[in-house]
Amino acid sequence: VQLVESGGGLVQAGGSLRLSCAASGFTFGSYWMSWVRQAPGKGLEWVSSISTGGFTTHAASVKGRFAIFRDNAKNAVYLQMNSLKPEDTAVYYCAADLSRWMSGRRNDYDYWGQGTQVTVSS
Questions:
Q1: pLDDT tens digits for range 83-99
Q2: If phi over 0 gives left and psi between -120 and 50 gives alpha, with beta otherwise, what is residue 45?
Q3: Helix (H) or strand (E) run with residue 49 in it
């Protein structure tokens, strides 16, 4: 099983980035997919989730700026991040679970990626 994130980098405040997560080794279409982040010196924070049927939900801190979507044909989930702020600086993790979502706890997920760094400069 693998979840491999990509697309992170350095961006100025107000800019955009799209993160990708490529999944393999499990039945991707059967899993809720989520993005969780960890800012420097802070704990894990749930960001966004998408159900198997495409229902999406976002943390209040990113609602209206971030969008999550999935492509089951490509076994991939994406996080489109717009209007980025310095406080969005974090390592972003992709996570998968059969039934859990909206959690910032790693142990709540069946599978977890290695993370991709997003840095937003002011």
A1: 999 999 999 999 999 98
A2: beta
A3: strand 44-50
